[in-house]
Design goal:
Elements (H helix, E strand, L loop, with lengths): L3 H19 L7 E5 L5 H9 L4 E4 L2 H8 L7 E4 L5 H4 L6 E7 L2 H9 L5 E6 L16 H8 L5 E7 L12 H21 L1 H4 L4 E3 L6 H6 L4 E4 L1 H4 L5
Parallel strand pairs: 1-2, 1-8, 2-3, 3-4, 4-5, 5-6, 6-7
The structure holds pyridoxal-5'-phosphate.
Length: 232
């Protein structure tokens, strides 16, 4: 049986060690528990252990869970987003990690009356099987995003190609940080009032979050190391 308490401690130990190597403080890094494929009991147990940020990948699966869980959970949407589904994301979603094109921005901008906090997803490795904007298109994506008054760009997100060797992800994490610096520079020149909101780097999963923290991650998205293997 999965022992969530042991898993959480093991993940925290890895976070602490990575922060120490990087000379960073642990509270600069948010642990986002990616709960897709796991039931409300497991999520509730991690909540009891103190985790408050949870991520889901499918709108319908999230809707089926949300009402059974405490209302102070900060929900993140990390999955590939279709514009026809975007409008079902309610105010209950704290941060949408996967905005990569105009149609999705447009749909989120129409969503009720509240501002959507978003991350721009970057396909750092230009992997044809992954979504996200190419690194040299990110500033253009940001330029479009600022035209929507109810979108707030909070940072960038990436999913590098899977590898058994976490070191192979390092250049991709670095590339995301560099893309973020470019967006910040552009915002500073063109929309300085928005530049300060750009603070998040969502990068690193079970296999490689240690390296991501060393490269500046502010949000790590961890599923398997917390919940155990998914059945999907
Ligand atoms: C499933 C998922 C994760 C978690 O992956 P693990 O390898 O299980 O930690 C992180 N990010 C995204 C976007 C995911 O879809």
């Amino acid at each position: 049986m999965t022992n969530l308490n042991d898993n959480l401690h093991a993940v925290r130990d890895r976070m602490i060690a990575a922060c120490a190597r990087a000379g960073r403080s642990l509270d600069e890094v948010t642990l986002l528990a990616v709960s897709k494929g796991h039931d409300v009991e497991a999520i509730g147990e991690l909540y009891e252990l103190g985790v408050r940020d949870f991520g889901e990948s499918y709108v319908q699966e999230w809707e089926e869970k949300v009402d059974a869980l405490p209302s102070d959970i900060r929900w993140h949407f990390v999955g590939h987003l279709q514009s026809n589904k975007a409008r079902f994301l309610t105010d209950r979603v704290e941060l949408v990690h996967s905005v990569d094109r105009k149609s999705v921005m447009k749909a989120l901008n129409k969503r009720s009356d509240s501002t959507s906090k978003v991350l721009l997803q970057v396909n750092v490795a230009e992997d044809p099987n992954k979504s996200g904007a190419a690194p040299d298109e990110v500033v253009e994506l940001a330029r479009r995003a600022v035209q929507y008054e109810r979108l707030s760009i909070r940072g960038l997100m990436t999913i590098p190609p899977y590898s058994d060797d976490p070191e192979l992800a390092r250049p991709h994490f670095r590339a995301l940080r560099e893309a973020s610096d470019e967006v910040r520079q552009w915002l500073n020149s063109n929309h300085p009032e928005r530049a300060k909101d750009l603070s998040e780097l969502s990068m690193g999963m079970t296999a490689d979050f240690d390296v991501a923290i060393e490269e500046g991650a502010t949000i790590i998205r961890v599923g398997t190391a917390l919940f155990g293997a998914r059945s999907d």
